[in-house]
Design goal:
heterodimer, A: 240 residues, mainly alpha, 9 helices, B: 491 residues, 3 domains, two-stranded antiparallel ribbon, 2 strands
Chain lengths: 240, 491
Amino acid sequence: MRQLGATALLVVAAAVLFATLAEAPPFGWQEAPTRNVITDRYLAPGAGETGVLNAVTRIIFDYRSYDTLGEATVLFVGVAAAVVVLSGRTGRFAVRLAGGSDDPVLQTVTRVVVPLVQVFAAYVITHGHLSPGGGFAGGTMLGASFVLYLFVFGADRARRKLRPETGEMVEGGAAVWYVLVGLGGVLMGASFLANAAAGFPRGVEGALLSGGAVWLIGLGIGVKVAATVANLFLHLTGED
Amino acid sequence: MRHLPILLTVVPLTGAFLVPVLGRRPDRAYRLALLSVLLVLACAAGLLAMTGSGQTLQYYVGDWPPPWGIEVRVDALGAMLATFFAFVYLMVVLYAGSSVRAELGPAAQFWYWSLLLLLLAGINGVLTARDLFNLFVFTEIASLSACAIISVRDRLDSMEAALKYLILSAVAGGCILLGVALLYMVTGQLHLDHLGAALPAAAGSYPRVLLAALALLVSGFALKSALFPLHVWLPDAHSSAPSPSSAILSGLVVKLGIVALVRLFFVVFDWRRLVTLPLPTMVMAMGALGIVLGALFAMGQRDLKRMLAYSTVVQVGYIYFGLALLDEIALTGALMHVVNHALLKSMLFLCVGLIISRTGERSTAAMAGLARSMPLTVASFTVGAAAMVGIPLTNGFVSKWYMVLGTLNSGRPAMVAVILVSSLLSALYYFPLVVSAYFGRPASPQAEGPEGPPAMVWPVVGLAAVCLVLGIWPELPLRLLGGVARVMLGL
């Protein structure tokens, strides 16, 4: 009875939302309300006033950098909450992994793959202002390389590579780095998280060292997201 | 000084991020948290002094002016709430400095301080947000860390309550995000003022999208602020958390949804157009139901913390009721009640925390005869109970009186009965506790000695004192909030 009521409610809600979307402006329409002065400035060709060639990175790390700081914080809260829930509990919530795998093929391939993934991740992180990707995507790859190592070689060896305390300190430190870059704008006489307006150099369009504060923040986010992924898996695989 | 608005969020964020780096010992983490909260209180007080003279402080993050960048704005309402919330936070942090050692395991302790600071950043972010997406981001920071400070206790019932809260607040978050997306789709704006300016044009072409967005946003924020009947998660969540967490959750976190809806109703959706919809009536009905039914549920509780949690449902109902009247006096009262309830409910939860840590019991029977061994705690509890009922000279009286006047002023004399009946019901569950604390016979022989560590007792007394001060001299905050109400109603 209860499930029937809930299903009926969901069907009604879905019907209302479909009726709403039927009215929506068509996808990709040139005269859609979202095509306005905001997007014109955001999507201006070239590196323009921000010095950042990649339009997505320009929006999330410059025009709306404060929101991105908030999103990085959401990740931090998530890991802090997971650590609090999992730590000090004797395997009630944590999954105990077996000591990894003995398969020589798996181990050898992992040994080859992990450094390649990490090099590519470093490339994605450092080129976020020029090409698709950036701190969030590259950081996830960097974290995933560690997770792969953890699954193949077991939690104990992974823990020797990265102690949970170190991971937590790196994550906190990278988040502080974001705030410090933002405060750099204040020190230079502009507002919090200001980039070109504060005098961070825009650099040559398309060069690796361009984009001012955006490049610095991207580095921090890359390290932070990698630490987030690694910490989450370290704690999910149980405490000593 | 120009940077004060942004410091309200940046200071606690920095403190929270530094905890795992510098404060891995609980005492150091505590000192870091205390320092951050003191700085936030100083910033908020400075902002209150500035906005009190009628100034509104605007801050363009990254120096991008709206509509391109994100604006952070502190008006008199934001500054006042930030100041009182920071004061409550300071008292709770002082109290928790002694109490978490007993309530939490060593591993959870230093993270607890980090999470408290993250929650404070989320609260201040919501209070100062002037951009709809930014409002959503900080609402999520606050909700997630609110779940986390419930689950810190190594007990299954805390886990279960936190999980329930997490799922429901994720549903609410999804509703809000979808509402934001729909509004952006038809206006192309996110800044609240620009959004409000673009809505009349959009209403012509996309009336159903606007209605759906409004419904999603209202249900999302109402769920987060436990408006009846969306309160089902609250009693478990607020009663199974550690006492300092309960104080913050019940006193401050439920108010965030209310503040967000206040911004939406009075900045984005022009209330004159809202009045043509039945929405204010619906909110008023839900508020009234929460006031009466919440009080009935509270009467049935034998657990002190659950009783206080249901009382929060009642008080949230009052605030929504006052807002939905769309009357200047009622609005002033409702906003004042946001402040008053923040002080009162956090104080009551800390009182009960003291009682539980001393008697080891959480049932209402534990109060019997406590006045002799815990005079300060019981005196503070009495102030809180009197204010909840609405006895003159307490701050609860002031806000309820304004809401009664506003109800009459808006031409709905019948609705006064709701407030009066509920006050009577509140008296029926609060006063027996006070009477038994003073005149009852203790069930078990009482322990000798002081009533608790001074660091836990004095914050409670401090909060009670502020409640009395605001009850006796309410003119200044009422004048400020009256100005806010006039601006909101466009008078």
